[in-house]
Amino acid sequence: MLSTLALLASEGEPSPLKPHTSELIVGLVAFTLLFLFLRAKVFPMFEKAYADRTSAIEGGIERAEKAQAEAQAALEQYRAQLAEARNEAARIRDEAREQGKAIVDQLTAEARETAARITARGEEQLVAERQQVVTQLRGEIGRIAVELAERVVGESLADDERQKRVVDRFLAELEAAPAGSGETR
């Protein structure tokens, strides 16, 4: 192969490694035109696309940061509202407890008052019934005493005034006698 190249170089033909000057000039002009066309038309589109992409990314980052700040503010607001709601709930519970306690105290006082009234009324009824029983017993004891006295004395005690005196004296002796003394008259 080397011998073929040496042979071609000796014959005066152009070398494949060394191009002609006209080919170099045409290639240089074509490259310059292509470069100028790319610089005028294609590179600005690439630059514009790059700038749009950059601004979109930066805008997206800014929007993301803004959204994150808004989310953080909303979270803080939510936490504040939650704390306020908890405080309100605690206040309402405390008020309900106080109202419940007041109602229980009021009902207890009313129940005691009612019980005291019922007890007083019962005691009054007992006193009235006792008085009535005592009156009935006095009348019965008086009648029995008059009958007994009539039998003992042998005369009639039909006179009301005399009968009353005998009954009163008998009852006075009964009341004056010590309780449980086994004396009989």
Summarize the structure.
With 185 residues, the protein is mainly α. It has helices at residues 2-11, 21-153, 160-176. Helix 2 (21-153) packs across helix 3.
Structure description:
- The protein has one domain.
- It is 86% helix and 0% strand.
- It has helices spanning 2-11, 21-153, 160-176.
- The protein is rod-shaped and about 200 Å long.
- The termini are far apart.
- The model has no long low-confidence stretch (mean pLDDT 83).
Q: What share of residues is helical?
A: over 70%
- Our count of helices gives 3
Structural class by sheet pairing and helices: mainly alpha
The average pLDDT score comes to 83
**H-E string:** HHH
Number of domains: 1
Number of strands: 0
Largest sheet: none
Radius of gyration: 67 Å
Distance from first to last alpha carbon: 180 Å
Residue fraction in strands: under 5%
Q: What is the overall silhouette?
A: rod-shaped
Please name the defining characteristics of this protein:
single chain, 185 residues, mainly alpha, 3 helices, 86% helix, rod-shaped
Question: Can you lay out the helices and strands and say which pair or pack?
Answer:
Layout lengths: L1 H10 L9 H133 L6 H17 L9
Helix pairs in contact: 2-3
